[in-house]
Amino acid sequence: MLVGVDNMEETEIYVLNNKRKISEIKKFLLLFIKERTLQGDIFCIPEFNCDNSKIIFYDEESILQYLINHPTEEYGLYWKNNKISNISTAMIFFTKDKNMILGLSVIENIEETLKELKNLCKSKYSYIAFEEVPPLNKKEFIERCKISN
To answer: Which structural domain range is residue 82 located in?
Structure first.
């Protein structure tokens, strides 16, 4: 069963990454979804407040560079996988405490994919969820992991 087939239930996996760097983002995206589309046409700062935005970005490179250069900015980005795969979506949540939470929506091989993501991030903090946005700071994320494991 693969993404692209109707009626498939997705599971979300999340891993804490304390290296908020472009190189970490590129490794993550290249490993899990090489052919992708960033979801959204405009990216407002602050997020969800385009009417009162300080800044608006229109492309992936610009918003990513801003979020790396402003390590306390909280933001969530989603990429759709353009290829039929076990992974439908990649997610990165930038936290106010200078971390990132990397996530994937997967259909099968959940534990294997989670292990691969944890190895990439060199992180011991992770959990599995269903349609849930992760806590957006390191302390709460770690607490959420303890509840799940």
So the answer is: 11-148
